[in-house]
Amino acid sequence: MGVRRKPFKSAVVKTVLFVLGRGFQSIAKRDPDVKKEVDGWAEGFQIMFEILPAGPFLTLQKKDGRLRYCGLKRTEADLIIDFKNVDTAFMMFTAQMSTAKAYAQHRLSVQGDIVNAMSIIRCLNMVEFYLFPGIIAKLILKRMPKMTLRKFGVRLNTYLLGIPFGI
After folding, report:
1. Which of 76, 79, 104, 110 has the most CB atoms around it within 10 Å of its CB?
2. pTM for the predicted model, two decimal places
3. Phi, psi (5° rounding) for residue 57?
4. CA 82 from centroid of its chain's CA atoms
5. Pick from 37, 27, 78, 80: which is nearest to 58 by CA?
6. Is the model's pLDDT at 5 over the cut of 80?
7. Could you tell me the residue ranges of all domains in the chain?
8. How remote is the C-alpha of 4 from its chain's centroid?
9. Pick from 55, 132, 59, 147: which is nearest to 99 by CA?
10. Using CA atoms, how far apart are residues 136 and 131, in angstroms rounded to an integer?
């Protein structure tokens, strides 16, 4: 018996992975907390988000001192975050479940250095803060950062330039 296809959920997850990848790249350039985390990673460090059993995928890499979105492709990565299935990814990416809750329920796993994994999760939380409206972010984040004018500027830049153009 084969894997049951879920085209709607797969399409949503793939779209969110694209937005997340572009958002990571843009926010890592502009938010000092995320930039500080990325600065602590080795040059060439690769991260892959993988939806089991067969994708989609999201790949990020630290290159030339910056975090780069490398596309929705599978790669050999230093750190891999596996989502057990498309249902789990869908729930997380549509703010129905937090990263902490998914991990506690064994819906995702990490392959690689736990120190780097924690750093990436801190970054992911900040990226979710910027990408989701406040009312939704409150549901999935343990602690909401204070929205300052600078953070609002980062959010606006991410929406207008980062996601559409990768800037």
Report:
1. 79
2. 0.90
3. -130, 160
4. 12
5. 80
6. no
7. 7-140+147-160
8. 25
9. 132
10. 10
